[in-house]
Amino acid sequence: MIPAQTILHPTDFSDSASAAFRVACTLAKQWNARLIILHVYPPVSALYTGEGIVPPTAGPSRETLLERLQQIRPQDPSVQVEHVLVEGVEVPEILRVARSRNADLIVMGTHGRTGLGRILLGSIAEHVLRQAPCPVLTVRSVGPEQGGTS
Question: Which of 51, 72, 115, 133 is a good FRET partner for 102, with 20 to 30 A between their CA atoms?
Fold first, then answer.
């Protein structure tokens, strides 16, 4: 693989995203690449039912999400990092940011869902992998029950 100049790391703040972040930081340092850390949060919308309108549930505010996102920093201060927070649907927004920022590589975590969970929920990583304008490196976090260490 040719060293990347821009690495995109989408995060949902999960353990698998943290594992992918460590890999992204290592690659960014080795290649002297810019690291873009992206979080996509869902749009707030009301639900229409046969009984009327159900008001949206309140999630964390944009300010809270931005603060949490900006706390994600490489240990090495020499890694150039940019934080991006966008509202939308995960896959299209990850792909849009990858294209608009000319990402050479996307490094993202995967939750490792299998069976019914994967069928019902799909795999964001799989959809990104199939449609991305650049290579995608997926990192699965391995917990103690799967032979890893905590």
Answer: 72
Which numeric CATH code is attached to 6-44+56-135? 3.40.50.620
On whether the pTM is more than 0.70, the answer is yes
H-state helical runs in the chain: 15-31, 62-70, 90-100, 115-121, 124-131
Mean pLDDT of the region 102-125: 71
Among 115, 116, 65, 112, CA closest to 86: 65
Q: β-pairing, 34-41 with 81-87?
A: parallel
pLDDT of residue 59: 77
Task: Delimit the domains of the chain by residue range.
Answer: 6-44+56-135
Rounded (10°) CA dihedral 106, 125, 132, 63: -60
Sign of torsion over alpha carbons 86, 92, 107, 97? negative
- In the chain, the amino acid numbered 70 is Q
pLDDT in the model for residue 21? 96
Question: What is the pLDDT at residue 113?
Answer: 54
CA-CA distances (angstroms) from residue 32 to 103, 110, 144? 14, 25, 33
3-class secondary structure, 51: coil
Q: Residue 81 is encoded by which pair of tokens?
A: 């990092």
